[in-house]
Amino acid sequence: MAAVRCIDICKTYLQGDQEIKALDHLSIEIEAGGFVCLSSPSGGGKTTLLNAIGGLDKPDSGEVWIEDQRIDTMSKGELADLRLRKIGFVFQAYNLIPVLTARENVEFVMQVQGLSPAMRRERSTELLNEVGLAGLENRRPAQMSGGQQQRVAVARAIASRPTLVLADEPTANLDSKTSDGLMDLFEELNTHHKTTFVIATHDQRVMAHVPRLVRMLDGRIVDDIEQNAA
Amino acid sequence: MNTLRVLLMLAWRNLWRNHRRTFIMLAAISVGVWAMIFMTALTQGMVNEMVKDGVSALPGHVQVHHPNYRDDPNINNLIPMADTELSAKFAAAGFEQWASRIKVPAVITSERESRGVTLLGIDPNRERDLTFVDYEDIDGRFLEDEADKGVVIGRKLAETLDTDVGKRIVIMSQDPKNDIADRGFRVVGLFGANMQSLEETYVFAGKQTIQKLLSVGDHVTELVAMGDDYRNVEPVYEKVVKLVDDSVVVNRWFELDSYLGTMLRVMDGFVLIWVVVIFLALSFGLVNTLVMAVFERVREIGLMLALGMKPSSILGQIIIESMLLLVIGLAIGNVLAVASIAPLNSGIDISIVAEGMEMMGSASVLYPQLRMEDVILANVVVLILGFFASLSPAWRASRFQPIEAITRVD
């Protein structure tokens, strides 16, 4: 079964009097356990596609499926539940809740899911170690660097064991070393947990990491390449 | 339960993100709540004194009369049943206090002046705990029994009549045959009261002496019973109704003195209005604080929605934040109110406005009355209205579109 299926989706925005076609009859299928990078110049539609897949935005037409569930017709509550159970998000910025510590941010989704405190603590400790933040568990976002914050966001995105992780420009605010480390972490999670990753980026190093590269332009897919990851 | 814990934690921490704003809002709520409770205690104290004085001047929470007595309080409108028979029934019924008396209009005359008064023929032993007269604060002595041949009048009346203890006066009234009944009495005592009007109006004499003077045999005009709370006279009323027949009417104190009864209801309504008005003033600050808090956190709220938190949880988080603010403010306000009312328990001297207060039927010392019902009312009103006031900003926060909120530019 495909992890993600978009069928002929369109999304138009109004910018002043001008209509912008962010997605233009776009169709794509991403297999379970896939590792896909969406790439386009700014305004090419990759973030809009990511938002549509994550149920954060609804397409004007077409269908969006996550596994066997059609999500473009779901209510707000159903979408929230789907995101809570199946999807992990990593945004470019403003990823963390400022009043929570690194550990609490990682545990946030698990807590809303209703996992026991012991299980949450075990997983958050393990994940924070995995992303190299052991010892920083009790720091609040304002006390961490951009890279550290992004790694906390990654730990949070995968803490609830989602089947799909959507990352929007996850390396945009990171230096090259941190960026490489983050991509290695994604690959490892993809390999070990069979988590499907869809990453929107225009970072060449990220593109080089992934086995499938989807190039977009003006809301359409112009290239869909299977490649040997570096 | 887990979600509630998360919401509580987020609400609590968000509350202290902007210390200064939270402290200012807490100060406003605390002062508002203090004002609600303090002013209510003063108002209730004033009403309480008015009603207590009023009821003690009547006196009696529940009274039995001839059906025509209230319209025409003269000696022809006696209670048809014999006093000894009724008294025996009342004595057996186990009232807190009760008494029977003759209460008729009369004229009192000294060698210099005459005045219209209300003559009370009483059993002094039964009236001790009912009347406004302090038996220990009498110039001379109070009546010794219901056959006492003397009279006790108010100090103010004595001054008006230019008489004193030991001097004689004449009391004149009508008997049931509409003949003049008069008799000379010796003034055996002068009483004081916290309102001059009481000192001017009432003249006390022994019940049997007055029964003889007015030739009414074993009859009285009034039978009264007291409960322990003037606000709750129903149990006493129901008990009295069972003891009497249809030849008499039974009234509660607020039916006998409709001014006092109305005043009590008006004051109860005033307290509620006062509490609501203060809250409305507070609510502007509260809503403003919440709106600010929400709009400072748009992206964060968007993030939580994106991560799978339901809109209802966002709504809950903002409401919990508001409730926490209100609960802390209420706690401080309640403590302030109790701390400021407790030292005033011995009364506030308002003799500077004594005349005005007496016109309203109140004494010149005000005893603030902190009633649990009023404290609960203030707290409940603040919490319930606070809940509704916070619904609007909370609702707006819960309606954010996650992606628009996350990408919002300040």
Describe, in plain words, how this protein is organized in 3D:
The complex is a heterodimer of chains A (230) and B (410). Chain A has 7 helices and 10 strands. Chain A is an alpha/beta fold. In chain A, the strands form 2 sheets. Chain A has a 6-stranded mixed beta sheet with strand order 6-7-8-3-9-10, sandwiched between helices. A 4-stranded antiparallel beta sheet of chain A has the order 2-1-4-5, covered by helices on one side. In chain A, a hairpin with a 2-residue loop joins β9 (212-217) and β10. In chain A, α3 (102-113) runs parallel beside α5 (146-159), α4 crosses α5 and α5 packs parallel to α6 (176-193). Chain B is elongated. Chain B has 2 domains: 2-54 and 261-406, no CATH class; 60-256, no CATH class. With 410 residues, chain B is an alpha+beta fold. Chain B has helices at residues 2-15, 19-57, 83-93, 124-127, 155-161, 196-201, 207-214, 234-243, 253-256, 258-296, 298-306, 311-341, 354-359, 372-398, 402-406, and strands spanning 62-65, 97-109, 114-122, 138-140, 151-154, 168-174, 180-191, 202-206, 222-226, 249-252, 348-349, 365-366. The chains are: A alpha/beta (230), B alpha+beta (410). Chains A and B meet through α2 and α3 of A and α1, α11, α12 and α15 of B.
Q: How would you sum up this structure in a few lines?
A:
The complex is a heterodimer of chains A (230) and B (410). Chain A has 230 residues and is of the alpha/beta class.
* Radius of gyration of chain A from CA coordinates: 17 Å
| CA distance, first residue to last residue of chain B | 34 Å
Kindly name the structural category of chain A.
alpha/beta
What is the ordering of alpha helices and beta strands of chain B? HHEHEEHEEHEEHEHEHEHHHHEHEHH
Order of helices and strands of chain A: EEEHEEHEHHHEHEHEE
**Termini separation of chain A (Å)?**
27 Å
Largest interface: A-B, 31 and 26 residues
Query: How much of the sequence of chain B is in beta strands?
Result: 15-25%
Q: What spatial order of strands do you see in the largest sheet of chain B? A: 2-3-8-5-7-6
From the spread of the alpha carbons, the general shape of chain B counts as elongated
Low-confidence stretches of chain B: none
Fraction of residues of chain A in helices? 25-40%
Largest sheet of chain B: 6 strands, mixed, barrel
**Helix percentage of chain B:** 40-55%
- As for the number of domains of chain B, it is 2
Identify the overall geometry of chain A.
globular
